[in-house]
TrEMBL record:
Name of the protein described by the UniProt record: DUF2190 domain-containing protein
Pfam families (UniProt xref): Phage_cement_2
Amino acid sequence: MKNFVQLAEIVTVTAPSGGVASGDPVLIGALFGVASKSAAAGESVEIMTEGGFDLAKHAGDTFSVGDKVYFNASEKKLTSAAPSNPRIGVAMKAAVGSATSVLVRLNGLPIS
């Protein structure tokens, strides 16, 4: 197809203020992904917008398989709390309140 440009599960963005470390969650507008490498603020960095990732979660939150997962940008952690937090994917594995992370499936769609 002559108008195909690239697969879109990896997107190059400008690292936000404070920079990013490899594996950090990154939110740019309505685009959410996971940094593939470390980058200083203003540098180009590739983020993965699709796939399964084990990411830090808010203490006390619990997840069952298939639960919606949201991103708390101020904490830079995943949460089960929907109000004012954008939805970024679904839980692929259950996580108890004492767990420090949750396995989440990112689907590459704009956050909602």
